[in-house]
Amino acid sequence: MIPRKSILAISCCGVIALGVAGCGSSDDESTASSGGGASGLSGSIKINGSSTVGPLTQAVAEQFNGENPDVEISVGQAGTGGGFEKFCVGETDINDASRPIEPEEAAICKKNDVSYDELQVGNDALTVVVNPNNPNDCLSVEQLAQIWGPDSPASSWSDVEGADSSFGADIERFGPGTTSGTFDYFTDAINGEEGVQTKDYNNVGENDNQTVTGVEGSEGGIGYFGFSYYEENAQGLKALQIKNPDTGKCVAPSEETVQDGSYAPLGRPLFVYPATDAGTKDPTKSFLSYYLDNVNDVASGVGFITLTDEQLKKSQDALASMTG
Predict the structure, then answer these.
(1) Superfamily assignment of 127-265 in CATH?
(2) Mean pLDDT of successive 10-residue segments in the chain (324 residues)?
(3) Which long-range contacts (CB under 8 A, 24 or more apart) does 311-318 make?
(4) What residue ranges do the domains of the chain occupy?
(5) Which residue among 98, 106, 295, 302 is buried most deeply as judged by most CB within 10 Å?
(6) For helices 54-67 and 284-301, what crossing angle results, to 10°?
């Protein structure tokens, strides 16, 4: 298994030296392949999509290649929406997604005769991070909306109603691009409408490590991304607790609070969407089976929140139904 630190370092660049060299845009692909095996499987699998799910898929792909070295797997990170643009016109075999497919995306898939299934592969605590010098420990959805909302958001921390009044640093926002599933999920959960957010922020695209360095370097910095990125960089960041809208209690992001539902509304499922045409044939069929058989072990090693037994069985049943 590849260490978590290595996988996350790879994910920010989008390329791993085993297949393709060099760093480019967020749409670059990591390729896992090697030669000399005798498993009987060969061919290629094209995957794209979420930068949140990408490191998990890449880790599974690397482990799968240890047993099936003649299969080449490319893992791009164009964002959930950017990935569906490719997937729904038949350019990829699997799309990683940090949110469910949208109706308009499903319509494009249908128009192009791309059928698919939805497999949950993990859970995530969408984590809001601030600079360690920020004295605030917990924010409500309403307070987050004051910071990230589309209309005249707060410009300094002292403008946020109910926040620590002693802290007056200017707010500097860091967040993903508009094709990101994380962007879609966060804006819907916090601002009440998907895609609606202030334009006054540092758009990091699919490179969540820019959010890490940005918030670390700005006393008033704030950003959001998947839990695995926080786990990898916890030493230089503070994860805010989120006030549960139903209980009023401040809840920290963790495996336990996501799985028990108390980390609301920012606990979320993570998915892969395999195309039926590819998923019913090798090597994609064997890769998907391997993915679900090993995902919880791999996930815990690279900072992801594992599936519950019930969630795993649901995904395995869905895959069995798809592949026959």
Answers:
(1) Periplasmic binding protein-like II (3.40.190.10)
(2) 39 35 45 59 97 96 96 96 98 97 98 98 97 98 97 94 96 96 96 96 94 98 95 95 98 96 97 97 98 96 93 98 90
(3) 311/120, 311/123, 311/269, 314/120, 315/119, 315/120, 315/121, 316/292, 318/117, 318/118, 318/119
(4) 4-123+269-323, 127-265
(5) 98
(6) 120
